[in-house]
Amino acid sequence: MKIKELCEGERPREKMLSCGAEGLSSGELLAVLLRTGSSGKNVLELSQEILSYAGGSLICLSGMSLEHLLEINGIGEGKAATLMACFELGKRLFAERSSINKTPVTSPRKVFELMIPAMLGLDHEECWVIFLNNAQYCTGMQRLTSGGQNSTIVEVKEVVRLALEKKASHIILTHNHPAGNPRPSQEDLRQTAALKKALTPMGIGLMDHVIICDDCYFSFSDDATSPAFR
Asked: What interhelical angle do 43-53 and 26-34 show, nearest 10?
C-alpha cells in the first residue's frame, strides 16, 4: 500500500505534525527521515525492514558503517547518508550537552557514564578526548579518530595541540573496544605512556585513559600495573 493511500492519521509526517515527534514509533520516525520507500515497499515498510536488520535496536543501527547500511535491501547511498547524518547529529548533541555539564569528572565510572551514549553499539573503534579545567569540570569533548574494528591511531602531537588550544588543565583519553574485552593492548599501553610524557612538560595532566565496552570499562589510573600511572 502506498503512503498516500493511508488515512492522514497513519502517515508518519502528518502524525508527527499533529501529535509531536514523541508520539511516533521508531519505525515512523525513520520513515519521516527517509521520506520515500523503495523496491515496491512504502517508506513505513522499508523502515521496519531496516529496524529488523538491526535486530530492532537503534543502538545497533547507529553503529553501522556505510558498507553495512548499503547491504540493506532498499537502502542506497542517499538514504544511508541520511541515517548516518541523523545519528551523527545525535552524538554531537550529546557532546554539546556534556560540555556544559556541571558535574566534576572525578572517577572512571563518571567517564563511562559520560561516553557510553556516543560509544554504545559501535562496530569500530573511536578515540575521544575530554578536556577538564582546574575544578575537573568537563569544558569540552572531541572525537580524535575513528578506526577499524581492532585499532585506532592517536596522534600525540594533535592531542597536545588541542589540549593547549582548549586551555585544559587535565585531559582524559577514552576509546572503545567493540569486541567486548576492555583490557588494553600493547599499543594502548605505548600510546598512553607517550601521551603522558608529552603532556607533562606543558603542565597538563593526563588524568586517565578509559577503555569502554558496552557493559564494562578499564581505567589506567585504577590499574596498579599501568606503567604510565604508577
From this structure: 120
CATH number of the domain encompassing residue 183: 3.40.140.10
What's the CA gap between 116 and 213, in Å, rounded?
8
Range of the domain at 148: 100-229
- State whether residue 32 is helix, strand or coil: helix
Q: What value does the mean pLDDT take over residues 28-36? A: 91
113 and 75 part of one domain: no
SS3 content of the chain, % helix, strand, coil (to 5): 50, 15, 35
Q: How far apart are CA 85 and CA 73, in angstroms?
A: 20
Q: What is the pTM of this model?
A: 0.65
- Give pLDDT, residue 21: 86
CA distances (Å), origin 16, targets 19, 26, 52, 187: 5, 12, 22, 48
Domain boundary among 59, 91, 123: 91
Q: pLDDT digit string (tens) for 71-89?
A: 998 899 999 999 999 988 8
In a shared domain, residues 214 and 105:
yes
